[in-house]
Amino acid sequence: MRRTSTMPSAPKPPTTLSSSTVIADNASLSGTHTIKIGSNTAIHPRTKLFSGNAPITIGNYCILSERSITGYQSAIPDAEKERGGGGVVIGNGVVIEVGAVVEAKEVGDGCVIEVNARIGKGAVLGEHCRVSPLCIVAPEEVVPAYTVIYGDGLRRLDRSGVKGDVKIDMIGRQADVLRRLILSNPAKFQS
Amino acid sequence: MTSFTPYTYFQCPCTENSTSSRTFGEDLPSPTSDTSEDDRTFDPRAPRAAYSLHPLEHLLYCEDCHQIRCHRCVLDEIVTWYCPNCLFEVPSSSVKSEGNRCTRSCFQCPVCTASLSVSSVALAQTGLGADISAQAGPYVLNCTYCQWSSKEIGIQLEKPNGIYAQLSKVKNGGEPYISAKDRRREDRRDISESPKGPGPNETLDADSQFENLKSFYQSQLADSAPSGGMGFMGGYGYGSPGALSRIMGLYTGSSFGDKKRESKNGNMREVCDSSEGLQLTSTKDDQCAITRIQRVGWEGTASTAQQKEQAQSVRFMDDLRPFSHLLRTKRSKRCRACRHILSKPESKVQNTRFRIRLVARNYIPAITIQPLQQAPTSLLTPMKPVQFVLTVKNPLFESVRVNIATPASTPGRFASKVTVLCPQFEIGASTDMFDEALREGGKEKRRTKAEASEGQLQAEAGKIWERGRNWVSVVVEIVPASLRTDGPEFMKSQQIQKDDGPLREDEDVLEIPVFVRVEWETDAAHEESGGLAAGNKEKELKEKRELAYWCVIGVGRIAQD
Lengths: 191, 561
What we know:
The complex is a heterodimer. By secondary structure, chain A is an alpha/beta fold. Chain A has one domain: Hexapeptide repeat proteins (UDP N-Acetylglucosamine Acyltransferase, domain 1, 3 Solenoid). Chain A has helices at residues 78-82, 164-181, and strands spanning 15-17, 22-23, 28-31, 35-37, 42-43, 48-51, 56-58, 63-64, 69-70, 88-90, 95-96, 101-102, 106-107, 112-113, 118-119, 124-125, 130-131, 136-137, 142-143, 147-150, 154-157. In chain B, helix 5 (241-252) packs antiparallel against helix 6 (254-264). Chain B has a domain at 7-22 and 35-56 and 363-557. In chain B, the strands form six sheets. A six-stranded antiparallel beta sheet of chain B has the order 2-1-22-21-16-18, with no helix packed on it. A five-stranded antiparallel beta sheet of chain B has the order 6-5-11-12-13. In chain B, strands 14, 15, 17, 19 and 20 form a five-stranded antiparallel beta sheet that branches. Chain B is built from twelve helices and 22 strands. Chain B is 20% helix and 22% strand.
C-alpha cells in the first residue's frame, strides 16, 4: 500500500505552455519561479524542471528526455539577480538527452546536449553546439557557436556548415512522432 | 590511501634457467657463492621478476610438457586477418599486397577515431513513400561522435559504397587525384602540342614520389648487380647487391660491406630530378606553413595523436584524411618446446569460441588470500602479527597433495616474517558439484566468519582451517616489517645497513614468494602418446605426476609510521 503524505502537495510553479506542447503526465515541474515552454516542444516522462531558484524558458521544437534535470540547482548570487538574470533560457530546436543536467544561463538554437552531460551553472552555449555524452561544461563558461565538445574535454569547431533550418525541421518531425507516443497532459501542470 | 586488492602471480618456468640479475652498485657475485637453482629463493622484487610473473588467467598449460606456458614461451600463428568494423575476413594474400587496412568501406574519423558513417547531403524527401525511396547523392562521411564531416575537407562522394576506391581518387578539397603515371601520360600528349614538358622540379605528392623513388632504385640495383665486384657470386642467384653484402657481412664483419659500397659508388647513381623522385625542399614551403598557421590558428592545427594516425605527415586540420580501420588477427599459440598447439581460435570471425584452449587455470591450483579478521584499515600495522587465510582450489579431477613453502622472512630490505601454519595438505577432486551438495547434510558444520571473529576457533598449527569439495584453506601468520630506516644501528637488518635510502615505489607492498608443489596420481591411459595397445595394458596403472612452481602473493600495504 502506498503511503500518502498528510502534507498538502507543494504548490505548482506558474507555468505557461503552448497549445502544441507535448508534456508527459509524470514529468516533474517544481519550484516557485515561472516555467515557460514553447510550441511543439516535447517533454518526456520523468523529465525534471526545477524553477526553485530561477525561472526557466524553453523555446520551440525542443526535446527534453527523461531523467534530465533543467534549472538552477542552487541559489543564484545576488549580483546575478541585480543584472536581471533570467534563469535558464533554452533556444529553439534544442535536444537534451537522457540524464543531462542543464544549469546553463543560455542554450543557443539547435544545441544537442547528450546523455549524462553536465552544463555548469550560468554557462552560455552558442548556437548549434554539441556536448557529447558525459562531457562537462564548467560553470560561467561561454562556449562559442558550432563548438563540439567531445572526448576528455576536447573541443573543436564544426565547420561543415550546419543548416539550422534543416536541423530544426528534423527535430520538429521527431517531436511529431513523440506527440503520438507520449500521453500528453498539459492540464495537470497549468493551474 | 587507495585500496589494495590481494593478488597472486605465478612464475612461468621459462625464465628459470637464465642467470640471476644484478642491480647497479651491487657487488659482483663471486663464482664460489653460486648456489644451485633449486636452493635459491625466488625474489619478487628482482628486476627480472617483473617479466616472469603473470596472473593465472594469462597462463597456458602444455599437456605434453606438463609445464606452465606464458606468452613469452609460446609461438603465435596468425589464423585469420579481419576488419574489426565490418568483421570481413581478409585473405592473407591481399594483406600482403594491399596492406593491413580494411579496403572496404570502413573508415575512422581523423579527429576522434570513431567509425564514420555515410550519409546523404541531399534533403530527405518528404511525403508519401519517403521512407522507402532511395536517398540520392552526393554523400559525405560523417562522424556521429564529434560531428566531423568529410565536407570539412571538401570531399563528397558519388556512391554510398566502395568508399575506399572513391576516396583514393580524390584529394582534399575535391580535386581528383591523378597519379604520376597518369599525369606523365597526359603530359606526353601535351608535349606533342606544345614543347613545354614537366619541369625537373615539379612537386609530387608522397605516393607518386615513393613510386618514382622505388622504380628508380630498383632499376639502379638491377643494372649494377651483374657488373658489381662480386661477379663470382652471381652464379648463386643472389641477384640483389643488398642481399649479397648482407651475406658477405655475416662472414667478414661489417667492414666488407662498407668496402663494397665504396666500390659500388661508381656504378650507382643517386636521384637527380622529380621523375626519379627527387624533391627539393625550399624555404618557401616553411613560409607557406607559417602563413597558414597564422591564418588558421591553434584550432586549425592537428594534434600529435591525430597526426600519428595519418599516412602522410600532416600539420593542419584541413589536410586530415579519414583512414580505414586497421585489421586485427586471431592467433593460435604453440608450445615452443614441443610445438603442440595450446590455443586455437575458431577461424570464423563471428565465432568467438576456441577449438583448443589449454588454459592454466584448468590444470594448476588457484591460490587466493584474504584476511582472517576483517581489519579496520586496509593497511597492515608494522610488527603486529596478522593472520590470513590462504585458499588453494583444485581444478583437477584427481585429488592432489599440496606442499606450500615460503621463506621465513620475505626478501628485500624490509623483511616480514611469514609462517604457514599447515604447509602440507590434500585437496579433494573437482568432481560433480551436485554430488557434494547432496552429501553435505551429514557433514560437520563449516566454520563461518562469524565464529572466527568470536574467537571460538583459533588457528592451530598443523591443521587445516577449512575444507570444501575441491578446496582447502590454511592460515598464514604474517608479521609485517617496519618501514623505518632510521633508528639505532643494532636494530637494523643487514640490507638496511647496506642501503638506507628512502622508501622506493611499491616497496611498502608486502609480497610473499611461495613455492607450491602439487602431486597427484592420474590414469596413465589418459596419455594419448601411449598408443592403443600400450594404453590397454597400462590401464590399471596409475601414473604419478608432480608440478612445482613459484608464485608471489601480494598481501597488502604496510602502514608507514
